[in-house]
Amino acid sequence: MKMHTTSLTVRFNEVDSYNVAWHGHYIAWMEVGRNDLAMQFGLDAQQLTEEGYLGPVVGLEVKYLHPACFKDQITVCTNLRPCDAAVLVFYNEIRSSDGRTLATGRTTHALTDLQGVLQLRTPPVIAERILRMTEWLDRL
Length: 140
Description:
Blueprint: E1 4-9, H1 23-39, H2 45-50, E2 53-54, E3 57-64, E4 73-81, E5 87-96, E6 101-110, E7 112-113, H3 124-139
Antiparallel strand pairs: 1-4, 2-7, 3-6, 4-5, 5-6
């Protein structure tokens, strides 16, 4: 499966006195990439809520490989892999302008109703949107 890309520039407020991006910003960049992709298919947080569901983060993994620095042009590559459980699992790679992988990560979002009741099956409206997204990613 291919990956959707989102381009960003490392801002001054995202680096420390060593000119290296603080590790927490990688998670925020993953969120930007995830929302950029999810929004196109009706799966961002607001769109899920409008359908009567929430997708809270229940798992987060990041592996840091190389630092990003002030003014670096980075690309957040994102995809979603279908899962049998009622979860959304997004995978990310953060790459430098020369293609070097700076970090990899994954977020897992459980699907609940608006009262927080865990869904045992992916709701049909969400499953259809996941299918459209994965078919689109396969065509990239």
